[in-house]
């Protein structure tokens, strides 16, 4: 057996339209939206009768996807959006951008707030974390040199 690829990373949100707008501003493309429901879906997730609206976002290179999900049924049972960077479990997505400061300016119009400072890691990357819509933690990296 050999791993072929990673298909996507999923993030559960409350406001799908606002989240789509944020990630489009970041540079992802909306690949499509769909309702996921039915017996098969509940069997896969173990949630039973579920109704989930999803949006599949694709990175510009076409190799990675982000699946945004809004659960209509069953209701969301936990909220990890205020967890700090050192919390256990899945926490954030990191994106490489051309110009970090320009990206921050654009994302600020969608409510993004800088978490700490913008720092340079050696002469390799300029990095920061932001809280985007719904307090989602997003890492941004600009390659240097």
Could you give a quick summary of the protein structure above?
This protein is α+β, with helices and mostly antiparallel strands and 145 residues long. Helices cover 19% and strands 37% of the residues. The protein contains three helices and nine strands; from the N terminus they run E-H-E-H-E-E-E-H-E-E-E-E.
Question: Using DSSP, what is the number of strands?
Answer: 9
Instruction: Estimate the strand proportion.
Output: 35-45%
Question: From the helix content, strand content and strand pairing, which structural class follows?
Answer: alpha+beta
Average pLDDT: 91
State the separation between the terminal residues, measured CA to CA.
39 Å
Radius of gyration: 16 Å
| Morphology call | globular
Spans of at least 5 consecutive residues with low confidence: none
The succession of helices and strands, N to C, reads: EHEHEEEHEEEE
Characterize the quaternary organization of these chains: single chain
Most strands sheet = 5 strands, mixed
């Amino acid at each position: 057996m050999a791993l072929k690829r990673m298909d996507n990373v999923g993030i559960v949100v409350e406001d799908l339209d606002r989240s789509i707008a944020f990630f489009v501003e970041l540079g992802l493309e909306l690949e499509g939206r769909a309702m996921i429901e039915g017996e098969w879906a509940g069997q896969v997730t173990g949630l039973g009768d579920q109704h989930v609206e999803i949006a599949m976002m694709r990175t510009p290179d076409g190799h990675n996807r982000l699946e945004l999900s809004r659960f209509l049924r069953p209701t969301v049972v936990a909220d990890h959006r205020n967890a700090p960077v050192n919390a256990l479990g899945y926490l954030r997505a990191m994106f490489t951008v051309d110009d970090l400061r320009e990206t921050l300016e654009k994302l600020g119009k969608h409510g993004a707030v800088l978490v700490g400072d913008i720092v340079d890691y050696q002469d390799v990357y300029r990095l920061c974390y932001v809280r985007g819509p719904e307090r989602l933690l997003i890492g941004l990296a600009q390659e240097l040199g």
